[in-house]
Amino acid sequence: RDFLPRGSGIVTRRPLILQLIFSKTEYAEFLHCKSKKFTDFDEVRQEIEAETDRVTGTNKGISPVPINLRVYSPHVLNLTLIDLPGITKVPVGDQPQDIEYQIKDMILQFISRESSLILAVTPANMDLANSDALKMAKEVDPQGLRTIVVITKLDLMDEGTDARDVLENKLLPLRRGYIGVVNRSQKDIDGKKDIRAALAAERKFFLSHPAYRHMADRMGTPHLQKVLNQQLTNHIRETLPSLRSKLQSQLLSLEKEVEEYKNFRPDDPTRKTKALLQMVQQFGVDFEKRIEGSGDQVDTLELSGGARINRIFHERFPFELVKMEFDEKDLRREISYAIKNIHGVRQTGLFTPDLAFEAIVKKQVVKLKEPCLKCVDLVIQELINTVRQCTSKLGSYPRLREETERIVTTHIREREGKTKDQILLLIDIELSYINTNHEDFIGFANAQQRNTQTNKKRAIPNQVIRRGWLTINNISIMKGGSKEYWFVLTAESLSWYKDEEEKEKKYMLPLDNLKIRDVEKGFMSNKHVFAIFNTEQRNVYKDLRQIELACDSQEDVDSWKASFLRAGVYPEKDQTENEDGAQENTFSMDPQLERQVETIRNLVDSYVGIINKSIRDLMPKTIMHLMINNTKDFIHSELLAYLYSSADQNSLMEESADQAQRRDDMLRMYHALKEALNIIGDISSSTVSTPVPPPVDDTWLQTS
């Protein structure tokens, strides 16, 4: 049968996946019009041309979208062939300028698969060493195990020349050798020369040609058919064991999911009640596991709700508290004004007024409200996200999922108000009484002797605070570009190494006078960035005034910032505030007032440190008690009652169409896998196969 389009120029403009299937009757069918059987193969050719034009247009355009064709015939062997466009270098018509690269990419998509055999078709009158088809085959099949080279146009070679040495695999050896064929000419096609007559003419050519008659039985289209069929047989034999294990693993993975459907009875009156109780119970278990943590079924891809909330408590919240810390110059100015205002018209007294201390402390404590409320908001967001993740398992029952999410989220929002009220009450309690007898408070006597430089707390020297990978993001391309290093943060320095073995140190940066600032995420970048800079305007690393450090997520950035806080590296203050107060910072103080300011400044620092420590301890406890534990109790004890009161059971447990379809598909897949395993078990393992040819020296063929 002759049904593939022929002509000049590029004729195959879409991949054609051709399945040849042995059958007693002869017909063809396309995947895009499956219901129609083609018995006239001229119509098949016309349909290929029409389907090609439908996607690519009529002016030589190309497309990687394949046409799928099945041909059933008593004259074919079971094979799947893929006809790919020939490599063209000069664009014509509607073809893009990079037509050569597009076609090569399209071809590589198919020939790169390990399961495919490559037919590299090359005319005999062309230099084989420069064959594009052979070079591409060599790229994806360097051992030559999958490549069969077909030599065409043997009848068109110049008189006195032949391809004997090539076909005998002597001149340019390849592992699977060469097969020569003689196809019909365009004149034969135009003259409607029959395929059988063409095969007979091909056979006669090889038998009568003095250079090829001794290998005529290894040449021609029929021999090519046999070779391909044998290779397919070998491939099936080789892949059967892996295919069997793959099917068995798929069957095992479906077993658990199918278990609940095996005994599915839609007429069971208790089915919906059982399902509702089971779903609500499972939702409560999932929520608790995500919050409290669990040893079984641990998620290794992302942090769960409980781990994220832990980060908020111990990394994000302390960082927000530090951001609220006072500016040194502003604080001293406020203390001096407070002292002067307390004395009024009288001259500055000999004694430091404690009222100034209380006024400044209360002003600093009030500032804690904002980060505390922000902490509650962050925890609420994580709780709501956790609820959504847990309700995703209720997707089989859309109404139940919607109601569960609404009821639990509403309860969390109700608890939000009570939690925030309690936290504000904690801060108001701290404001109501300034306890100067606290055991950790330094007192007036110690404050007068204390040096401001010793006030800055640092962790134990050389103590490693954190290790991890970070990318230095702002190194120019000329100097190597962005690069990932292994960073080690201690109480005194930040070092980075080539890798985690920590043998090849790249640099060590002392932490003195360093601060952190935020950096906006790049437009095309997926990285989250923060920067470290020197407050004295010195270069931090080489010629860089700041180094930008990039992480994969905002959570990692927040975590690193919290680690830097522990090392005494604080965030940059708001520049606008500093600029506004710049003019007022030039005031002068007499020595007596300066001593009083210094004393109160030390007292305030000591007392606010006590308050911060107390708040950092009480905040997680308050949120856990009033919001998280309360929500867990609500889910276990009251959620079911709220669900029953919100809607009737039938509407809640109405199954989605997707779920019904999923159940049917799963059962169908389960039975198909069992049937496939039975078929594979019946296939004889004694299938005749041919050994792989030995390797040859094919270094003459250079890949592109």
From TrEMBL:
Top-level lineage group: Eukaryota
Q: What class of enzyme is it?
A: hydrolase
GO molecular function term, any single one: GTPase activity
Residue ranges annotated for the GED domain, each copy included: 597-688
* Stored InterPro entries: Dynamin (IPR022812), Dynamin_GTPase (IPR001401), Dynamin_GTPase_CS (IPR019762), Dynamin_N (IPR045063), Dynamin_stalk (IPR000375), G_DYNAMIN_dom (IPR030381), GED (IPR003130), GED_dom (IPR020850)
Location in or out of the cell:
Cell projection, Phagocytic cup; Cell projection, Podosome; Cell projection, Uropodium; Cytoplasm, Cytoskeleton, Microtubule organizing center, Centrosome, Centriole
| Record membrane topology | Peripheral membrane protein
The reaction(s) catalysed by this protein are:
GTP + H2O = GDP + phosphate + H(+)
Identify the species of origin: Pygoscelis adeliae (Adelie penguin)
What is stated as this protein's family in its record? Belongs to the TRAFAC class dynamin-like GTPase superfamily. Dynamin/Fzo/YdjA family.
- Does Transmembrane show up as a keyword for this record? no
A Pfam family: GED
Lineage, uppermost ranks: Eukaryota, Metazoa, Chordata, Craniata, Vertebrata
Keyword annotations for this protein, in alphabetical order, are: Acetylation, Cell junction, Cell projection, Coated pit, Cytoplasm, Cytoplasmic vesicle, Cytoskeleton, Endocytosis, Endosome, GTP-binding, Hydrolase, Membrane, Microtubule, Motor protein, Nucleotide-binding, Phagocytosis, Synapse, Synaptosome
Q: What protein name is recorded for this chain?
A: Dynamin-2
An example of a Gene Ontology cellular component annotation for this protein is:
postsynaptic density
Biological-process GO terms, alphabetical: phagocytosis; receptor internalization; synaptic vesicle budding from presynaptic endocytic zone membrane
Please report the stretch or stretches of sequence annotated as the PH domain: 463-569
Give residue ranges for domain Dynamin-type G. Answer: 1-241
Listed EC numbers: 3.6.5.5
Gene3D superfamilies reported in the protein's UniProt record: Dynamin, middle domain, P-loop containing nucleotide triphosphate hydrolases, Pleckstrin-homology domain (PH domain)/Phosphotyrosine-binding domain (PTB)
